[in-house]
Design goal:
Strand content: 15-25%
Largest sheet: 7 strands, parallel
CATH topology of the largest domain: Rossmann fold
Distance between the termini: 50 Å
Shape: globular
Number of domains: 3
Radius of gyration: 23 Å
């Protein structure tokens, strides 16, 4: 069986592979990496969580010449959240490659810092969203004449989001002799058209969803449209969910449903594309650190969401197609853990359930009992609360500094402190809900690393 040590990777990349604990390649890596390392174009159909980022990441890093200061690899992603994840993974894989510059260029963030970084010197690798990449190309700030590897990650979602024209313009600015790698969860006609115009004699790879997705229990509940919000609250209370995602089809419903769940007492937050990027970042931080127990999201906003041990996914609205349904429920039941997916279905949505049943090839399991909603403010809130510190990496703040201040001056035990996320200008720390008020008062009255910073509860 193929293993990473048998691949012709540079020593620096083998170091990254070992640091991440990789031994046996996943199916997508085993079937695509030899061709990628050999310089072939690849079009791959692979589900989320299949290891595709390492597959194209090792390929593009293998071809880099760090001594040549120009952009040699470009990865296009549908959302900033996914772009951030990809960039983090590339940096981890490249831990043995000194002086490598990976730059994330996405919309929703200030343009000036990105322009200054590009002016300082070209990055070796750019990971970004099509709209911002197109904007920087038109400003002649980003130069793609040296690109050796182009990656279209989650190409189906980029097309769904209307990025076809920017993608075509961006591709036109790259050398024709580049290597092109296209990864998509589905192979639609539009994807195949992009592939025909972009890839040269590509190897086509299709990998089925991992077997552990079979542990997802899928249930369906027919509800009256007027009772959907109370039915949802009843389901979440019944299952005492600590970490669940509720999917809505329309952005306007996301805010309304989140507000309804807050009324019942859940620590629910909304996530959709109309939100400011900072607000979206904060929501994702709070969900990941367990100070939000229910995330109500649109499909596009939740793309790239990767939360371990997600207990429950609820389709508040039936998805319009079977592929979206499979993608939504695939966020639970990962790594062999049990998962539960419940879909609320109004009478008008029954034809969509029939489409899903045909895709699954088995009868759907329908529940007859609609659980009663909890009383107002009676539902269990999240176990943690998030404190925001108005300081970050630019202030030389590190997670250990925050932990030290909380366990020292603030007098908390380490067990009461959860995840600490440090961003350039702000830091988020999860604290046990019953300790949050005391922690906030102590931090505002005391100092962190000998300095006073503004701290507030989110």
């Amino acid at each position: 069986m193929l293993d990473f040590t048998s691949l012709p990777l540079a020593p620096g990349l083998q170091q990254g592979v070992q640091a991440l604990g990789y031994t046996q390649p996943t199916p997508i890596q085993a079937r695509s990496l030899p061709a990628i390392l050999d310089g072939r174009d690849v079009i791959a159909q692979a589900p989320t969580g299949s290891g595709k980022t390492a597959a194209f990441g090792l390929g593009l890093l293998h071809k880099l010449d760090v001594a040549t200061v120009r952009t040699q690899a470009l990865v296009l992603c549908p959302t900033r959240e996914l772009a951030d994840q990809v960039a983090q993974q590339l940096r981890k894989l490249a831990v043995g490659i000194p002086n490598l510059k990976v730059l994330t260029l996405c919309g929703g963030m200030p343009l000036e810092p990105q322009l200054r970084s590009l002016e300082a010197h070209d990055p070796h690798v750019v990971v970004g969203t099509p709209g911002r990449i197109q904007e920087l190309l038109r400003k002649k700030a980003l130069h793609l004449g040296g690109v050796r590897t182009l990656v279209l990650d989650e190409a189906d979602r980029m097309l769904d989001m209307g990025f076809e024209e920017p993608i075509r313009e961006i591709i036109g600015k790259t050398p024709k002799d580049r290597q092109s790698l296209l990864f998509s969860a589905t192979f639609t006609d539009a994807i195949r058209e992009i592939a025909r115009n972009t890839l040269r004699d590509p190897l086509e790879v299709t990998v089925d969803a991992p077997q552990e997705q079979a542990v997802i229990e899928q249930r369906f509940l027919q509800v009256d449209p007027a009772r959907k919000q109370t039915a949802l609250a009843g389901l979440l209370a019944q299952h005492r969910v600590e970490s669940g995602v509720v999917f809505c089809n329309m952005r306007k419903d996301v805010d309304e449903v989140a507000g309804s769940l807050q009324h019942f007492g859940f620590s629910a937050l909304a996530l959709h594309g109309d939100m400011e990027q900072r607000d979206r970042d904060e929501v994702l931080v709070r969900f990941a650190n367990r100070s939000c127990n229910v995330l109500v999201a649109s499909d596009v906003a939740a793309r790239g969401l990767d939360i371990e041990d997600l207990a429950l996914v609820v389709n508040y609205d039936m998805p319009s197609d079977a592929d979206t349904y499979v993608h939504r429920i695939g966020r639970t039941g990962r790594a062999g853990r049990d998962g539960l997916a419940i879909s609320l279905c109004t009478p008008r949505e029954l034809p969509r359930a029939d489409v899903i049943q045909e895709r699954l090839g088995a009868p759907l399991l329908w529940d007859r009992h609609v659980p009663a909603a909890p009383k107002a403010h009676a539902a269990p809130p999240a176990a943690m609360t998030t404190l925001r510190i108005d300081a970050g990496k630019t202030d030389k703040l590190r997670p250990g500094d925050v932990l030290g201040a909380l366990t020292g001056d603030a007098g908390l035990s380490a067990s009461a402190i959860g995840k600490i996320n440090v961003f350039p200008t702000r830091t988020y720390v999860a604290v046990a809900r019953d300790k949050a008020a005391a922690a906030l008062a102590r931090l505002n009255a005391g100092k962190i690393k000998g300095r006073s910073f503004r701290v507030r509860k989110l």
